[in-house]
Amino acid sequence: MDVVVVESPAKAQTINKYLGSGYKVLASYGHVRDLVEKDGSVDPAQDFEMKWELRDKRNALGEIAKSLKNAKRLILATDPDREGEAISWHLEEVLRHKGALKGIDVQRVTFNQITRDAVRDALAHPRNIDQDLVNAYRARRALDYLVGFTLSPVLWRKLPGSRSAGRVQSVALRLISERESEIELFRAQEYWTIEVDFLTAKGELFTARLTHLDGKKLDRLGIGSKADAESAVRAIEAAAFAVDEIERREVRRNPPPPFNTSSLQQEASRKLGFGANRTMRTAQRLYEGVDIEGESTGLITYMRTDSVTLSQEAVVATRKLIGEKYGADYVPAEPRVYKTKAKNAQEAHEAIRPSDLFRTPEQVARFLDDDQRKLYDLVWKRTVACEMASAVLDQVAVDVASQNRLVKLRANGSVIKFDGFLKLYHEDRDDTPEDEEEENRILPPMEKGEAVKRTDQRTAALAAPPPAAASDVPKATPEKAAEKIVRDGINGLQHFTQPPPRYSEASLVKKLEELGIGRPSTYAQILTVLQDRGYVRIDKRRFIPEDRGRVLVSFLTEFFGRYVEYDFTADLENQLDEISGGTIDWKKVLRDFWTAFHEAIAHAKTLRITQVIDALDAALGPHFFPPRDDGGDARKCPACANGRLGLKVGKFGGFIGCSNYPECTYTRQLAIADPTGATPPVVTEARLIGTDPATSLPVFMKDGPYGPYVQLGDKPPAGTKGEKPKRASVPKGFDPATVDLELALKLLALPREVGKHPTDGEPIKANIGRYGPYIQHGKEYRNLPTPADVLTIGLNHAVSLLAEPKQRRGASRPPEREVGEHPTLGDKITAAVGRYGPYVRLGKTYANLPQGTTPENVTLDQAISLIDARIEKAGGKPPKPKKPKTEPKPSKEDKGLAEAKAKFLTPPKAKAKPETKPAPKPAAKTTLKSPSKTPAAPPAKKRAKG
Which of 247, 425, 461, 894 could cysteine-pair with 385, CB 3.0–4.6 Å? Predict the structure, then answer.
């Protein structure tokens, strides 16, 4: 018998059906070990020796080891990327250490799709574990660890309330923060567009836009005011027009390439509204297998890949499908070949595509849930379209000019001559080009020199105010109706330039990919970590940096600028790729990085907090305090006469405060000052979120005695017996200010069913209880690691958690761990988990550990900072070091007793005695009746002379 190990039980279940009785397929439930979560797990002094510890996967490892007793081969069939290679390496290392691999042949196999043929073909072509991929994994883990565990203590001491966002996450946070600064500093400019409706000689209508005035070409902002627009309208009214030039050209538009990980995340975000995590979670289920007519079938190829290349078999199958379904005209003469743009692409070596192109979305829709159906449809259409013929468009541009040629207007039109791939698929973009906006705008036939005249056929419709349109782009100007000039077929419209839009998940992933930062398997994690640590939030599917995030970016840019530079981070990613390609030594990369980074850390440790705040205030001051329109002082405190506003740093991040504190307590959030000098409005927590589409009831965000909560419907009037509205608590980790209607309805819908357990078919439910978020399967309960998991956890993760041993409430807690000695107080600091969570303790002073920090990984610097902050909060001054205990001075009675004991209870020295004299009689016993009395002296004749 051969033992095959994969990551997840769902994948194991699918593969087990493809193999015969000679194989046993087991799941490792992901990584079986990780770096020890404490200082020293990566030791630069010992040539970057790494210390690993087992995750709580004893049951899975025990079952694998037990199965190997009767096996001949161990086949490691984890995913075909760096993470998959690392999981296989860890498994082999642990099992070999346990002595479970004696006489066992260990082989590594990979397959890009989970189908019967692909799995069997992989088993027929095994290989050894790729050490270059493993070394690339180890280098990445070591770099991330060294940055996180070395930088976080500095942040704790110099920037209270902050910790490292992560090596790559910090660069993404910088992108988001810089975009927000661009938006805040943006100043809108007014401009006007002038369009004219014309009739041809045959009475056909077309519209042209003004491009030249007074013989000069106009740029976008060429008409900058209403007065300029009125002047242009008068010039058009006074002129007669004719067709001046006609340009015709045929344009071929090629289909987009098949999906790789980043493009799938981008397009799923644009078309389906899926976040990166949701996209990857759904794709994982499609890859691992879906039950179709009693057989688990993998529907797509591996979803973590840089590649846009299709296998030869896939290309042949796709072209055959196109010919059968759409006709020979839609099959190009030669197959399309796509090449990966990313340097050193080291993930899976094929694009994301359906495992069987002839399995159409319509055929499998009834076997899929809603998310799976939408994503499979997207992948299928994109794959088929990428091999279809190009679309052919006829584009026409007509210039209309006045007789003196001082005024010119242009009309553009485009007609799809052959739809090609557009018959099946149209790619969305963040910014739609003008030629696409004019697609299918048909211009009537015209001839050069043909006279045209103005008409007011559209005037009445254009005069009406336009409907309000929702936008996720921040408005740079006060909301007001745009002015218009509508007269005799001439239509002028006022516009204002808009700031660049905030990053969406799609546009941020695209930007990271363009810069060469991160890799396919890391994009979802990058975005998740930034949200989980409270550095950004999402509003209307756009990233908004939190105050603490902006302060952190400013600190890193000021004192660790090199490590948040885009080029430096991209170059480091390229070096990691070179490691996986075997062209560079992984420890050399670590040595080069650590030498400079360690020096930067040492310098930062010498900084005083006042230096940090002054540097941040100087860096952020011009941004948060721009010049006022009235020429007044932008830093003048609005609450007192002579206070100066500046950046302050508190436990929960940065804020704006007055220099006269504590006499003046004015504070406000980190936000750019109003150029008019107006005081920023106060934002309250209680608010109307929206209306539930199912019940038409209002949804409110409220704050109660036990924290924030959402409520469906109004509370019944006092004295009535109306039904109480449904409420749901907002879990810790969610900012109440960012809770939108979608999130509120999800909270109100709890508990939710995650899925059916693969062993018994019973439902697994996720909910929030008295002790936080949890999952339930029958009578089994497991706490969830983070609050967001209650809304996002998938079936595989839930099954994995249920398989782990239960941590029972009330069980004996582990003993306190000694962290180190306080440098000034002298006592030892210990760490442990208590009734209210993890903590550090110095004597009778307790301080809670922040989220994500455990008693095992808390450092001495962190512990000292927490203890000092707690002491200062409690009494304002740290306690004085305890003096060592001294012995009290003895009393006279004690001295007398001591002398008596020394004199009479100590045996006297033996004296030499004459041999002729008989032995003396034994002396009578003496008794000490009390400490104050002295015993009688011996007879005089017995005393020694002299």
Answer: 425
